[in-house]
Design a protein that fits this description.
about 160 residues; alpha/beta; Rossmann fold; five-stranded parallel β-sheet; 5 strands; about 10% strand; globular
């Protein structure tokens, strides 16, 4: 499984003291157990959000050491983000960078506890023709998403 984890959900996924850890820890476990699973990230805005999550840097370093991170080309994500923003003229929409990561990488799973982006994640007009829109993991009720059919060959991965 390739998964993009919303910055506001890192604590739920990786911090055992989080009250939502039980709901989101299956994503963490899947990344570790499934040989082809990767945490997907890229783009200037997403990386800026990650800087605010310094508490999780040791965990991210460990994932990188285990080859469990797929970094997507920042410049391609950033230019795609600009195109997505041009299609949505709503000042409340602040997740164009997330949609850009899905478009550029081909990833299919979004781990998030925030429903504000849902409307936009599902908008077909934001994606290229025949592009599969992401599914959202919001807890154990979505554990069925953590399966091999959602493993994809990622595009635009930095080597």
């Amino acid at each position: 499984m390739c998964v993009v984890i919303d910055a506001n959900t890192f604590h739920c996924t990786f911090d055992p003291s989080s009250i939502l850890f039980n709901e989101f820890s299956p994503v963490n476990q899947w990344i570790h157990k499934e040989p082809r699973a990767r945490l997907v990230y890229g783009g200037t805005k997403y990386k800026r959000e990650m800087v605010a999550l310094q508490k999780y840097f040791p965990y991210l370093v460990e994932l990188r050491r285990l080859n469990k991170i797929a970094e997507i080309n920042d410049s391609i994500v950033d230019s795609t983000e600009t195109k997505v923003e041009a299609k949505v003229r709503n000042p409340k929409f602040n997740d164009a960078h997330i949609i850009a990561i899905f478009i550029v990488s081909g990833c299919r799973i979004f781990c998030s506890n925030d429903q504000r982006a849902d409307k936009y994640l599902k908008m077909q007009l934001l994606y290229p023709k025949k592009h599969k829109r992401p599914k959202v993991y919001r807890g154990k009720k979505h554990i069925h998403l953590l399966c091999r059919k959602n493993l994809v060959e990622l595009r635009n991965v930095m080597r």
